[in-house]
Amino acid sequence: MNTLILFLKGIIFGVANVIPGVSGGTIAVVLHIFDRLIEAINHFTKDIKKHIMFLAPLGIGALAGILVFSMLIDYTLTNYSLPTCGFFAGLVAGSIPLIYGMAKSKQPKNTSKAKYFILAALAFALVIFLSTLKTAEGGTAVVGDVPVALMFKAFIGGAIAAAAMICPGISGSFMLVLLGLYNVVIGYVALVKDFLVTFDMTILISIIKFCAPLGLGIIFGAILISRIIEFLMNKYHTETYYIILGLILGSLIGIFLDPIAYGSYSGTIPFSAFIVSAVTAVCGFIVAVFLGRE
Known about the structure:
The chain is mainly alpha-helical. It has helices at 2-18, 24-30, 34-42, 48-79, 81-105, 114-131, 148-166, 172-178, 182-198, 201-235, 237-257, 271-292.
C-alpha cells in the first residue's frame, strides 16, 4: 500500500513539473515527500535499500506522470487553461498552513518575527520577479543529428531546472521556458510515442542524444541543491521555512501571472471560466489539506 501511495504521489509530482508556473518542490511539500526526497538524494549510500524503496516507486510514478499525463495536461491547458491552473493554485494554497506550522515549530521563543517576515517577503518578491520575466523563444525537437550545442544546453538547462524543481515555490519547467528549452523537451517527450509506434531507431537515437545530457544535468542539479537545502534546514530551520513560505505565496500569484493560465481564451474570458476555476481551486485545496494530514 505504501508503494502504491508513493507511485500515485510520484504521478502528481511528475505532472506538476510539466506545467510552467507550478512548483514541483511545492507539490513535494504538499505530498509530504519533500524532506524524505532531500534525505534520499543526500544519503543514498547510507541505507540503499530504504532509499530505493522510496525513490523507485516515486520515480516511476513521476516518469509515468510526465509521459502519460503530460498529454492530458496539455489538453486541459489548451482547452481549459484557467480551471487547470486554478486546481494547482488550490493545491499550493492548501499547503500554506502546513508550511507555516513547520516554520513555527522550532521558532525560538521571545524573538522578533520581523526578520522572518522580511525573509519571506524577499522570497515572495523573487518569485514574482521570475514570473514577470520575458520568456525566451523555444525551439523544437531534432530528429537525426542532434547538435552538440543543444546537448550542452540540455545539460545546463537540466541542472538549472532540477535546482528550481526542488526549491518550493520555483517552477523548474518555467526555468526551461526562460532558457528556451521547454518546447524542445516537450517535443522529445512526444517523440517517445512516435518511436513506440514506428520503432524507428533514428528517433530513438535522437531521444537518447538529447535526454542523456538532460538527465545528467538534472541529477547534478538535484544533488547540488538538495545538499544546500539540507544544510539550511539543519542550521537555519525557521529561517529556511519562512523563505519557503514566501516562495510558495509568490508561486500562488505567479501561476496567474503566467500567460499559460489564459492560453485557451482568444478574447474576453467568460465569467463561467472563473466560476469553474474557483471550484477546481477548492478541489485542489481540499486535496492538499487531505494529503497534509498524513
